[in-house]
Amino acid sequence: MDISGSLDPYVEVKVGNYKGVTKHLEKNQNPVWNSVFAFSKERLQTNLIEVTVKDKDIGKDDFVGKVLFDIAEVPQRVPPDSPLAPQWYKLVDKKGQKINQGEIMLAVWMGTQADEAFPEAWHSDAHSVSQQSLANTRSKVYFSPKLYYLRAHMIAAQDLVPSDKGRQPDTFVRVQLGHQMRVTRPSPMKHINPEWNEELMFVASEPFDEYIIISVEDRIGPGKDEVIGRIIIPVREVPQRIETAKLPDARWFALQKPSVAEEEGEKKKEVKFASRILLRLCIDSGYHVLDESTHFSSDLQPSSKHLRKPSIGLLEVGILSARNLLPMKGRDDTLHPRWNEQYTWEVYDPCTVITIGVFDNCHINGKDDARDQRIGKVRIRLSTLETDRIYTHSYPLLVLTPSGLKKHGELHLAIRFTCTAWVNMVTQYGKPLLPKMHYVQPISVRHIDWLRHQAMQIVAAKLSRAEPPLRREIVEYMLDVDYHMWSLRRSKANFFRIMSLLSGISYVCRWFDGICYWKNPLTTILVHVLFLILVCYPELILPTIFLYLFVIGLWNYRFRPRVPPHMDARLSQAENTHPDELDEEFDTFPTSRPTDIVRMRYDRLRSVAGRVQTVIGDLATQGERALSILSWRDPRATAIFIIFSLIWAVFLYVTPFQVVAVLIGLYILRHPRFRSKMPSVPVNFFKRLPARTDSLL
């Protein structure tokens, strides 16, 4: 097309108002593009598909030729049908006349999202996205890194050589694995052969390409430490321990001076005498590394593949569409997106939870420093799903922001849980939630929280290096990084959850109080009859209780939930939360707010903690009163109680049990005219018992 006889061709595919363009190839009359373009069938505004070949030019691009297709005549392909074979088509000019030379090879078909060509295709709903940013619009499956707990036992050291030989060294051990760093307590033995006997735990990830850096340091003064010796051990050389197998034997490792340890590629000089450290290192593959809260964990399997149980079923999730979304960036936002994508997982435990998050993609315009915005999240516990039933339901998308609760619309999902091993699934309910190692050799709560945070950081770092990256803000939101941080809103929600549970107990107490005070005489008489029957025939007590539970469960079957539960704004106390409480919840740790705001929040926290302290103190008082009954702290009260106990022992020995039970029951259920409004004698006696509150400062 050019005067020089060259051609820089590219193809423009146009369907109505949508236009897709291939990249241009310089000076090539036989170009190969291998590009796929996908146009949404629901948005077609024309009956023609126009494929035009053009020549890239400095000014206006030259027209080379085109091919037209009638959409009504396009063949339909449904997988697993074989893909259509591309064919050569003669190019025509603008008037539709065939030109002398020039052909284009292509295939046109009506397909579905199951086509193998669809994931890598250019999509009409991403027509404004550049070629470089197309990767951020593709469907991808990311695998979380395989995590393990690494146990490091610092036992002792020998023949340390401090820089100041005139003083005894105050030594401790610093261990570093990647970005994780832990320090032992200083040795109680301040000499050149210290002992620590302390265990530290870390999180390691496959393919074990990191190094453990262990250094023995001497605390010379406040904030001043000196490295005495160091050793670097590859993680891949650390032995693995499966379940409760015997720990590997401790080994002596020669410490090197820091300058020698940092040198790489230099041949180590053989030394006859050196400082040593006694270590026991192992990778515990019998644990499940917790990178999310156990309350809604998506996986509970141990790290070792040899200990993993077979799957019990399949979970199929269809992500259909969303509607009534709020605009996040402007007019170009799609407020009613349709995905129609299906994903399948093997299920190993019915008590796991699937989390589905919705985000606003802020990287489709090449802005690498932008953060994807949260739109909402849905959690579904698999045990709440009936097997082999398809749930098609819309879930509200709720997200909490510093400005308050936002309702972003609804997410339409199709979910089905299929059980393939009924016996294994039923027996799972009688097994521990976590692998055996968590109960045989439990890790303290303080260490678990620290290890959980490290595991989250490793997962976020690994997935952020994928292509396209799964960014840190997405991983942190899906794993609920801030779930264990202080939140006044969440504390209120937990308080009202407890009150909701206690309301059932208070209802039973009110019902029994109504029986005792004869508010409904007929019910009270029936309770008397039932009580006398159970006293006369005590062997009916347990069968009656379990039969009652069976009937209640059968009755509640009619009112069972028809859809899985979703995020509840009222339960979360998110609807009427004060803005300052939300600002505190989204504050960084440590805080970044001004001093006066921190002081005000500290005073508020002291007020809340004061109430909690009072409740805990009252509970402790009641417990101490119960313990003081036989402790002779109040000698008269203890004497009264033991004499009373002796009288009761003799009385119960000579009196049949049924008679005693009838007397106690009739006394409790006596008529109101035989009752007094004053507290009973046992209550008065209990409240007069001493507690240790007298000894508190």
Automatic annotation (TrEMBL):
It comes from the Eukaryota. The chain crosses the membrane at residues 525-555, 640-669. SUPFAM superfamilies: C2 domain (Calcium/lipid-binding domain, CaLB). InterPro entries: C2_dom, C2_domain_sf, C2B_MCTP_PRT_plant, C2C_MCTP_PRT_plant, MCTP_C, QUIRKY-like. Keywords: Membrane, Repeat, Transmembrane, Transmembrane helix. It is a multi-pass membrane protein. PANTHER family: MULTIPLE C2 DOMAIN AND TRANSMEMBRANE REGION PROTEIN 6, PHOSPHORIBOSYLANTHRANILATE TRANSFERASE ISOFORM 1. This is FT-interacting protein 7. The lineage of its organism: Eukaryota, Viridiplantae, Streptophyta, Embryophyta, Tracheophyta.
